[in-house]
Specification:
Number of helices: 15
Number of domains: 4
Number of strands: 60
CATH superfamily of the largest domain: TolB, C-terminal domain
């Protein structure tokens, strides 16, 4: 199968490539449209190989997010989906022992469908006003791509529409949800396109062209787990090529690669190669333009169909077959093509021409580059948005304008600890517009952050670093680019209402939000004039971003810049002069159209509002962005302009004095106000009401991807394997699952239904599950005279029944789970003879059997909290809480019991990737038929046998220090995951009705406290007699022979058990593999000698030496 990693398309990602050491890919088989300039670092680590690939989601297209770093690990369904009516006990140790964060459905969508010639469009009534134009965009895109490739899709393509990005994030098609940076995606299994509508018309059309091209690619080049793959740049490059346009920041990356002489060998480049962000996409775009220039459009078609042959087998090298060149020849010719194409730009200004880079030094700090900047009113400090390599998040730091030293990080720590998910950035505009604002008094910095469905305005104190005020903006979608008024009482920002971009302002005293513009154009990047009477902003008209001025009193708007180029967000130098980035060229000189396209470069310009004079101050090779004004360093020197630069894939921070301009022209030289030419689809479409209908709940059920396979190994050597088959409707809201798993030879089968269409998610399951544990409990479960080995004492619990369950997410991190059901329950030893003997023993000892058979009707309520931040190796920081209560009332002949279960974890990050991990797990059950809790081995209590501990009450606690040893390993098998080490310690115990079940074979006779019940520890002096040997009675049963009394004093674990040790963890074939060396201890050698005297004597050792021997274990699974 061709599996592509999760694409990230942002010019801004270059500076952040060093944050994680690579351009992180995460979703296999996903083609998500990433708006130019957003970086997504989305760690989706799933123990099930190919599970995400099986979803068939192709390359993600994201909006500009230089560092998103959500890092949430997706807990695969195979880690324990069976809700067996047990609200509290999870059964066997799951392969992925995490509970997961919540994907919340905030809105209730009433889905309808509308069919056109080539699409089945899924929409809800709020979208209907846009339906006709979107249908025309989609059909126009289809005709364009079909005619270019001379190919048609066999079926209507499902096109799922959302009105806004906040609603798009609630989709259930892509597992694990999509972060804010993902603007749209297409998936290959069911050929679905999913996108929001909140883009200007021309950009929305381009988005549809990009995603639809992916569907054509999937149809031409099949995807399969068993087929050869093809490079990421093919899918993404062709999709961008079909749009027929270049974004200025996309072109910047290609021009940078060409002029810096770092053109890769495209025939060899897999995934992202040496690049990050959108560079591989853009290089792919350039490759297809190269193929067209040399072999024509037919060459592109031949190349794609040759790729088809090579992927499905039987075809030769696609370059040789389609283009008649070898791989090396193609690479050389493409490299020469790029260098020749951009040769005219080689002599333009590079960042070094502006002096030294003033952004934080990545060698001396944890910060990478500077992506967006904002000056303090005093000019002494600059706030900069930077990537934080340690946290793998975006941070806002303060830099001194004198020496550019980092003064402080005002967003230090993980974003979740600040009360939001992440710092939100402008969607499609990247760092061409402001990201933050500094208050007039200089004490606060304003920025937007994601909180629940929408964004919140955060006002953070630059001195204390505390968030002084928060305003949850629920009336406007995707607010961005805050700007304080000169008096500091209001704040303007851009946002979306009804999927149209406008300007808004918020009264900071009352929190009231009101619109400033209500036109049909996309308005963004507001900035107040120094007198506070007007606002200058950007508006997208006729396909370009132009500067306008809005008089706040009269609401009159005046266009300030003209022409077919783009401007970026402006700042006031003084009350009559603006500074801003612009892609304008000298309007008085003729220029070749191709050269103009390749030279679409952002430079620093100013506009004198009193004379309408435009001045250009830089002539960059790549691009200069985010200009701000700084005061002169000396009285006789001019003001300074500081701005963001880009070169060799990295962002930097430079400044120039505002002296003689490169160019001076009149604004009228670029044109004058004229009629606005709104974007129109090439092929108009007229809405046909008869083609609209309400979507049925279970319409279009289909196999949801390829069934995944999960594999694990316990520390006891038991093999775990499982798979799941899922059928879902086209929206992923209604899911039917068949789950099958086996650990050792014990199986779990479940058939379930899940309704994910509302905030309250619910489901039902029918199942049969057999769990096993080791009932090696002489004197408790069977006659102590039986000498059994571990495997002879295997006990099973078989449950057959059905359950209902529901989840209510309180927020992103917390939820309530409710379950109820009925099931038949049977516990027994595997050995029938042992079962009969244990039944007799238990009836004689307790008056009843401890193993139960009967019917249970359990009801459970559980609170779950998951704030953990994950990395590829597991938890890094945060906490996990799971508190459950279950009651099974005795109804008629049903069994009755109650149970509580608690799982508490805390992760403290040390340095960059070191972790102090703490866990406490406790269980208690009571009633006529109390439940059993069993644990041991793996990461629960290392050094002891797997599932060695059993009881109706019990606990274990762990403390682990985890640290990196080797980041990556180059082996004959390829590059394997890094190696991490761990020092660990654990403590636990279990009992049944107060009787210890952690007693070992050969328990000594306690002369001081006979029959004292479960004691975790003691430090009193006692006398005991150890077992020295066994003799046979008249029936052949062993009778213990006790030695002389001995005195035991000092602290010791009596019925508790502890261990400590060291471990190594690495990843092999995507699975976490553990090698642990453990030492058991009771903290008292005299006590251990007495307790284990017989076992030690068998091997010629003391009891403590036998007990404390190092034990090695190997297991596969994720650590807690």
């Amino acid at each position: 199968m061709t599996v592509s990693s999760c694409g990230t398309c942002c010019a801004g990602a270059r500076v952040l490539r060093e944050v994680d050491g690579s351009a992180l890919g995460c979703l296999r088989g996903v083609a998500m449209r990433q708006d130019p300039r957003r970086r997504l670092t989305w760690l989706v680590s799933c123990a099930v190989t190919g599970w995400l690939a099986a979803t068939g989601v192709a390359q993600a297209q994201t909006v500009f997010a230089p560092y998103q770093g959500t890092g949430d690990r997706v807990s695969c369904a195979l880690s324990g989906p069976v809700s067996v009516g047990h609200a509290t006990v999870r059964g066997q140790t799951p392969l992925v022992p995490y509970y997961g964060k919540n994907e919340i459905k905030y809105d209730k969508f009433r889905w309808h469908t509308y069919t056109t010639d080539h699409f089945e469009i899924f929409y809800y009534p709020e979208i209907e006003p846009h339906l006709e134009r979107v249908a025309s965009y989609a059909e126009s895109a289809y005709q364009h791509i079909s005619s270019e490739l001379k190919h048609d899709l066999a079926i209507r393509a499902p096109l799922v529409l959302f009105k806004t990005h906040a609603e798009f994030q609630q989709q259930n098609i892509m597992p694990g949800g999509v972060p804010e940076g993902v603007a749209a995606f297409a998936e290959s299994q069911r050929n679905r396109m999913v996108l929001p509508l909140d883009y200007p018309p021309d950009q929305l059309y381009g988005l549809i062209v990009h995603e639809l091209t992916h569907l054509f690619e999937y149809d031409i080049i099949p995807r399969s787990l068993v087929r050869r793959g093809h490079p990421l740049w093919v899918d993404e490059g062709l999709s961008d090529y079909m749009r027929g346009t270049w974004d200025a920041l996309d072109m910047m990356t290609v021009r940078d690669v060409a002029v810096a002489d770092i053109v890769p060998k495209m025939t060899k480049m897999e995934s992202y190669g040496m690049f990050g962000g959108r560079t591989p996409y853009n290089l792919g775009h350039a490759v297809f333009e190269f193929i067209e220039s040399k072999w024509g459009k037919e060459g592109i078609r031949q190349f794609l169909f040759s790729l088809r042959k090579s992927v499905i087998g039987g075809g030769e090298n696609a370059f040789e077959e389609a283009l008649s060149v070898s791989d090396d020849e193609f690479d050389d010719q493409f490299s020469n093509y790029l260098k020749d194409r951009f040769k005219p730009f080689r002599d333009k200004e590079r960042p070094e021409d502006y002096g030294r880079d003033l952004s934080p030094d990545p060698e001396d700090t944890r910060y990478t580059g500077a992506i967006s900047i904002e000056p303090a009113p005093s000019g002494e400090l600059v706030a900069a948005a930077v990537g934080n390599r340690k946290d793998q998040e975006l941070d806002i730091i303060l830099l001194s304008t004198k020496d550019r030293q980092v003064v402080r990080n005002i967003t230090q720590g993980f974003d979740k600890d600040s009360g939001y998910e992440y710092i939100a950035l402008p969607n499609a505009r990247g760092n061409t517009v402001p990201w933050m604002a500094w208050s007039p008094k200089g004490d606060l910095i304003a920025y937007f952050a994601r909180t629940e469905k929408q964004r919140s305005l955060i006002l953070r104190n630059v001195v204390t670093g505390k968030a002084e005020k928060r305003y949850y903006i629920d009336s406007v979608d995707a607010p961005e680019s805050p700007a304080f008024s000169p008096d500091g009482k209001t704040l303007a920002f851009a946002g979306l209402r009804n999927a149209v971009g406008d300007l808004f302002q918020i009264d900071l005293a009352s929190g009231k939000v009101s619109p400033l513009t209500t036109d049909a154009f996309a308005d963004f990047a507001p900035v107040f004039a120094p007198d506070g009477k007007s606002i200058v902003y950007l508006s997208r008209i006729s396909g370009n971003d132009k500067l306008f001025r809005l008089d706040l009193a009269s609401k009159k708007r005046t266009q300030l810049t003209f022409g077919t180029h783009d401007e970026g967000g402006a700042r006031f130098i003084d009350d009559r002069t603006l500074v801003f980035p612009s892609t304008a060229l000298d309007p008085r000189k003729p220029i070749d159209p191709e050269l103009a396209k390749d030279g679409n470069i952002y430079n620093i310009w100013t506009l004198d509002l009193s004379t309408d004079t435009l001045r250009q101050y830089t002539d960059a090779l790549t691009g200069n962005l985010s200009p701000i004004v700084l005061p002169a360093t000396k009285e006789d020197e001019p003001q300074r302009i500081s701005f963001i630069t880009y070169f060799k894939g990295e962002y930097g921070l430079h400044e120039i004095p505002l002296r003689d301009p490169e160019l001076e022209v009149a604004s009228s030289d670029f044109g004058a106000p004229g009629p606005v030419i709104d974007f129109q689809a090439p092929l108009p479409h007229t809405l046909v009401p008869a083609n609209q209908k309400r979507k049925g709940t279970f319409d279009r059920l289909f196999l949801e991807g390829r069934p995944p396979v999960s594999v694990g190994v316990t520390s006891g050597g038991d093999l775990f394997g499982g798979t799941q088959v899922t059928f879902a409707d086209v929206l992923g809201d209604q899911q039917f699952n068949f789950y099958a798993a086996s650990i050792s030879q014990y199986r779990t089968l479940a058939l379930g239904y899940h309704n994910l269409s509302r905030r309250i998610q619910w489901g039902a399951q029918a199942y049969q599950q057999t769990l096993f544990y080791y009932g090696l409990q002489p004197g408790l479960l069977y006659d102590s005279r039986f000498l059994l080995d571990r495997d002879a004492a295997i006990a099973t619990r078989t449950m057959t029944g059905a359950s209902l369950f529901a989840w209510y997410p309180l927020n992103r991190y917390r939820r309530l789970e409710l379950s109820g059901g009925v099931f038949r329950y049977n516990e027994e030893f595997d050995d029938p003879g042992l079962q009969d003997a244990s039944d007799d023993f238990q009836r004689q000892t307790y008056g009843r059997t401890l193993f139960q058979s009967g019917t249970l009707v359990p009801l459970g309520l559980t609170f779950v909290q998951e704030t953990t931040i994950f990395r590829e190796f597991g938890p890094l920081s945060g906490s996990t809480v799971r508190l459950g209560y279950e009651v099974s009332p005795g109804i008629g002949d049903t069994l009755s019991r109650q149970a509580v279960d608690g799982d508490l974890r805390y992760y403290k990050r040390l340095a960059t990737t070191g972790v102090l991990a703490l866990r406490f797990r406790g269980f208690r059950s009571w009633g006529d038929a109390p439940d059993f809790f069993f644990y041991g081995g793996n990461s629960e209590l290392r050094g002891y046998d797997y599932l060695e501990f059993v009881g109706d009450r019990g606990f274990f606690a762990n403390a682990e220090l985890r640290f990196p040893l080797i980041e990556a390993m180059l082996t004959p098998l390829g590059v394997l995951g890094g190696v991490r080490g761990a020092f660990f310690a654990g403590l636990g115990g279990a009992s049944f009705e107060g009787r210890p079940t952690t007693t070992d074979f050969g328990q000594p006779l306690n002369l001081t406290n006979p029959g004292s019940g479960f004691r975790l520890w003691d430090n009193n002096t006692e006398q005991v007699r150890s077992i020295e040997n066994f003799v046979a009675d008249e029936f052949g049963f062993p009778i213990p022979v006790y030695g002389q009394p001995r005195t035991i004093s000092g602290f010791r674990l009596v019925d508790g058990r502890a261990s400590y040790g060291v471990g190594l963890e690495t990843f092999l074939l995507g699975f976490p593999v553990h090698f642990d060396w453990s030492w058991r201890t009771l903290f008292n050698r005299d006590w251990e000698d007495a307790l284990f005297q017989f076992q030690g004597a068998l091997e010629g050792k003391s009891g403590s030496d036998w007990f404390r021997e190092p034990r090695f274990s190997f297991w596969i699974g994720y650590d807690f």
